[in-house]
Design brief:
The protein is of the alpha+beta class. It is built from four helices and seven strands; from the N terminus they run E-H-H-E-E-E-H-E-H-E-E. It has helices at residues 20-33, 45-57, 105-118, 135-143, and strands at 11-14, 62-67, 70-79, 89-96, 124-130, 147-158, 161-171. Helix 1 (20-33) crosses helix 2 (45-57).
Length: 184
């Protein structure tokens, strides 16, 4: 019999290729039944591996939360927008298995992601949260220093209804209080 999740130690670490099937299953569940992602068809394992490789190739972190050998969630940072002036701003993504929500997995993942990103050249982190009713994600981000900066009304249509996106933002390191460090 499996131990209850809240009795297990959770380790946050860099994801590995072996984590991709579990990551794909967590994301597929959200795509099919949730509103955190505006995708409507779950990507397969090969596509999720390609996405992870692209994050890592950009020098950004891709993390997994594991307990007793099971991946409970994952988080990563990606470019906020492709134009050069946005190069110091990144967007976070975080997904937690449905049966692991509310147990602190998201907080550990987001905390580790912020910490990893603060060691890089980035100065702002943006969260684009699907659905203004996603109180868990909004409160998690707020607890980790994000502030709400806007709501995009009805920008998605999923599961038969219009869905808003909540924009939240936090500074990384000194944020915009000083000029960015020039890249070599």
């Amino acid at each position: 019999m499996d131990a209850p999740l809240n009795d297990l130690a959770v380790v946050v670490r860099s994801s590995t290729p072996a984590d991709i099937p579990a990551i794909q299953a967590i994301y597929a569940q959200e795509v099919l039944h949730g509103l955190a992602s505006f995708e409507e068809t779950p990507p397969d394992v090969a596509e999720m591996a390609r996405r992870r490789d692209a994050v890592l190739a950009a020098g950004l972190p891709h993390l997994a939360a594991e307990s007793a050998g099971r991946v409970l969630g994952y988080a990563y940072a990606g470019p906020y927008r492709p134009r050069p002036a946005y190069r110091h701003t990144i967007e976070n993504s975080i997904y937690v298995a449905a049966d692991a929500r509310g147990l602190g997995v998201g907080r550990r993942l987001l905390g580790a992601l912020i910490q990893a990103c603060e060691t890089g050249p980035w100065r702002q982190m943006v969260a684009v949260i699907g659905d203004r009713d996603n109180a868990g994600s909004i409160e998690l981000h707020r607890a980790m220093g994000f502030r709400e900066v806007g709501i995009l009304i009805g920008v998605g249509f999923k599961h038969g209804r219009w869905v808003d996106s909540v924009l939240m933002q936090r500074a990384l390191g000194p944020g915009d209080a000083s000029l960015p460090t020039p890249r070599p």
